[in-house]
Write a structure and sequence with these properties.
The structure holds 2 protein chains of 2 kinds. Chain A has helices at about 5-15, 25-40, 55-60, 75-80, 115-120, 120-130, 140-150, 385-390, 395-410, 420-430; strands at about 90-95, 95-100, 110-115, 155-160, 170-175, 180-185, 185-190, 195-205, 210-220, 225-235, 240-250, 255-265, 265-275, 280-290, 295-305, 310-320, 325-335, 340-350, 355-365, 370-380. By secondary structure, chain A is α/β, with parallel strands linked by helices. In chain A, helix 2 (about 25-40) runs antiparallel to helix 7 and helix 8 packs across helix 9. In chain A, about 50% of the residues are buried. By secondary structure, chain B is of the alpha/beta class. Chain B is about 35% helix and about 30% strand. Chain B contains 8 helices and 12 strands. In chain B, the strands form 3 sheets. A 6-stranded mixed β-sheet of chain B has the order 6-9-10-3-11-12, with helices on both faces. In chain B, strands 2-1-4-5 form a 4-stranded antiparallel β-sheet, covered by helices on one side. In chain B, strands 7-8 form a two-stranded antiparallel sheet. Classes of the chains: A alpha/beta, B alpha/beta. The interface between A and B is medium-sized, with 28 and 38 residues. Bound molecules: adenosine-5'-triphosphate (ATP) and magnesium ion (MG). The site of adenosine-5'-triphosphate has 12 residues of chain B, from helix 1.
Chain lengths: ~450, ~240
């Protein structure tokens, strides 16, 4: 059976499992979503937004849709994936199911818990009904599919005037309990007025079985909220992810989404930002360092609808061997979004002879008093600079690594959690296969 | 220390050095002068191992060892240092981290462990002070946005840190103001010992007033056409190169 048919057939079983309140808004949304998915199906290369990313090899797998639950993992085997050196809240899932042993949730200064549990409590159900699926695309097969099957994920609700001192870690592990598995986590983040939160998210498979993660994250930033969101993608060779992030911002809020992609078979990041007020800042940053036949596709959309807002995008990519990349940055400036400041930069270095990148800035500007800039570079390592470093006694391999490191450094510099910054630094030097011996 | 015999080198399709012979002994200072485009920078690049240039004939030995098959970093580990005519900007790498990496890589090649951070810092401080270098430069990206003179001073700072056996200073004086020239020249002189040697490439007598050469060579069209003592530099300053052709 084709994956699509299998999913459609599974939906009934899923909704009838009993733990779903059939009167709830969420149930209605799910039913509509499966209909949308039935209509849209999975995207193909004929779809303009998927022109350079082929899903063929990952959709041919016979994924199990309802993973076997119950496998636990010991902390010592997964510790390295946590920012274990700092105090934090943690929401951890193993094969799609909540793992209380590895988690550290709260309802005190804020609600940091799981979506399924929150849905069962009237107090949270009201909130969830209000926000859930508000900003996800209804024209995207993957997002609709996720909505239809959404049962589990993180629910983060920060009340107003709250500065969360501890970062929140959201981790999804898969143990490979099935040969081929489809996971569909659903995260909802609501940050109240004047509040501030830092979130780190990671999806990690613990063995080499095939996994496809189709994730949806909705973020709502209220007035003057500040959200720093970090995604670290460094998964195994048979792990693929379609990561959909939707952000709605109210006036004076600042949201930064930082994506670090170092591994995985196929990684597609969709980020779409909606402005609902003036003086908003949206920062989207990313580094991709991949090799082999890995493929990474960063698709961003920023919808400027109000005056005096700002968006900054900085994406860097290093592609070795025959790795391939896509960057597609769309910025839409509405007619009434005067005094918009939109900046976009995408720089790439092709290290491998067969590596390639498709980069496409898309500026659709309908206002006249705006400052919009975009730049895109694709280059090789500068031979003169390499010789300069070598002439000082730095061997070629290290010299290359140093230059690549330096190339990505301005994105690393944006990390505001020191423990994460050194983790990412370490991952990059592992990636570049050198001991750099210092922290930049 | 350095011995160059009948060196022919250049680009794939163009020979730039057409038979260079040069002998340098420990403790000596050699000046190389010559018109623009005569091959001075090419010679320094070839000695340091720049792969842009191909050696077609001849040999270069350092303390008796053939270095032509060594990579630039291996030559650096053996004590070769080139102060670039045009230092390269490397955004994202601070001067401090760069020099730390360079020193520790050299130590690694010598079978030593990393220099303890404390000693490294002390050394950086001392050498920066010797060259009267503003320490804010050390935490800035290597050469990025440095003025011409600042870049040259930074080259000599790196030389001071790496303590080479053979230093080649390619037009280090160009871009330096009068005071900076004195400071940099003083620095170079302080680094001089009876065991190391210096090649100074310059167009002007000015620098040679401070760092007095034992020999002066004239490079013309890829060949050394005249060698002499320090008076030769004065003569060139007065008469130019025409009389030598
Ligand atoms: N990478 C290169 N590509 C093309 N031509 C080169 C290259 N390197 C050197 N040349 C040529 O070789 C000749 C010698 O150049 P070189 O830089 O060695 O001269 P120089 O003596 O250092 O001159 P200057 O006094 O101006 O610094 C010049 O004609 C130069 O154009
Ligand atoms: Mg020159």
């Amino acid at each position: 059976m084709k994956l699509k048919d299998k999913l459609l057939a599974s939906f009934m079983a899923f909704e009838n499992k009993g733990d779903i309140d059939l009167d709830s808004n969420v149930h209605k949304i799910r039913t509509e979503a499966i209909e949308t998915f039935e209509k849209l199906g999975f995207p193909t290369k004929k779809d303009e937004e998927w022109k350079y990313t082929s899903l063929k090899t990952i959709l041919k797998n016979d994924y199990s849709v309802f993973p076997k639950i119950g496998k636990t993992v010991e902390l010592k085997y997964v510790k390295e994936y946590f920012l274990h050196e700092i105090d934090s809240y943690k929401i951890v899932f193993v094969d799609g199911a909540y793992n209380s042993f590895l988690s550290d949730t709260t309802h005190e200064e804020a609600d940091v818990c799981l979506l399924s549990a929150a849905l069962k409590k009237p107090k949270y159900k009201m909130i969830i009904d209000h926000y859930f699926d508000n900003i996800t695309s209804k024209k995207d097969g993957f997002s609709s599919l996720n909505t239809a099957f959404s049962v589990e994920g993180a629910f983060i609700n920060i009340p107003k005037n709250t500065i969360l001192e501890k970062p929140i870690q959201i981790l999804y592990f898969s143990t490979g309990s099935e040969k081929e598995i489809l996971l569909q986590p659903r995260n909802l983040v609501i940050v109240g007025e004047n509040s501030h939160v830092q979130i780190y998210e990671r999806h990690q498979s613990l063995d080499n079985n095939a996994i496809l993660t189709n994730c949806v994250l909705e973020i709502f930033a209220h007035k003057r909220a500040i959200i720093d969101y970090y995604k670290v993608q460094n998964d195994k060779e048979n792990a693929s992810i379609i990561d959909n992030t939707y952000v709605q911002q109210r006036q004076n809020s600042i949201v930064s989404i930082n994506t670090f992609t170092f591994g995985g078979k196929l990684t597609r990041n969709n980020i779409e930002v909606f402005h609902e007020g003036e003086h908003i800042t949206s920062n989207l940053n990313g580094i991709t360092i991949i090799e082999g036949k890995q493929h990474v596709d960063n698709h961003t959309v920023i919808n400027h609808k109000y005056e005096n807002c700002e968006s900054n995008e900085l994406y860097k990519g290093i592609y070795d061997d025959s790795a391939t990349g896509v960057f597609n940055g769309k910025v839409i400036v509405d007619q009434k979004a005067q005094k918009t400041n939109a900046f976009q930069q995408n720089d790439n270095i092709l290290v491998g002879d067969k590596a390639s990148i498709n980069a496409k800035p898309q500026l659709e500007i309908f206002a006249d008093d705006v400052k919009c800039s975009h730049g895109c570079t694709i280059g090789q390592l500068d031979e003169k600079a390499l010789f300069y470093l070598q002439s000082r006694g730095i061997p070629k391999k290290e010299a290359k690594a140093l230059m690549l490191f330096a190339f990505g450094n301005d994105v690393v510099e944006k990390i505001k959690i020191p423990a994460l910054k050194s983790r990412v630094t370490k991952l990059i030097s592992e990636k570049l296969n050198v001991e750099l011996g210092f922290e930049i | 220390m350095l011995s160059i015999k009948n060196l022919h080198a250049g680009l794939e399709d163009k020979e730039i050095l057409t038979g260079i012979n040069l002998e340098i002994k420990p403790g000596e200072v050699h000046a190389i002068m010559g018109p623009n485009g005569s091959g001075k920078s090419t010679l320094s690049s070839v000695i340091s191992g720049n792969e842009t240039y191909k050696v077609n004939k001849g040999e270069i030995t350092l303390n008796g060892e053939n270095i032509l098959d060594l990579s630039p970093d291996e030559r650096a580990h053996k004590g070769v240092f080139l102060s670039f005519q045009y230092p390269i900007e490397i955004p994202g790498v601070t001067t401090t981290n760069f020099i730390k990496t360079a020193i520790n890589q050299k130590r690694k090649a010598q079978g030593l462990g990393d220099l303890p951070a404390k000693d490294m810092l002390k050394m950086i401080r001392e050498k920066a002070a010797m060259l009267e270098m503003d320490r804010t430069f050390l935490s800035r990206s290597l050469n990025e946005g440095f003025s011409g003179g600042e870049k040259k001073r930074n080259e000599i700072f790196q030389m001071a840190m790496l303590e080479p056996k053979l230093a080649i200073l390619d037009e280090t004086d160009s871009g330096l103001d009068i005071d900076a020239l004195k400071i940099v020249a003083n620095g170079v002189n302080k680094l001089k010992t009876k065991d190391n040697a210096t090649i100074i490439i310059t167009h002007y007598q000015r620098l040679l007033d401070y760092i007095v050469p034992d020999f002066v060579h004239v490079l013309y069209n890829g060949k050394i056409i005249k060698s002499g003592g320090k008076e030769l530099a004065h003569e060139l300053e007065e008469k130019g190169y025409d009389w030598l052709k």
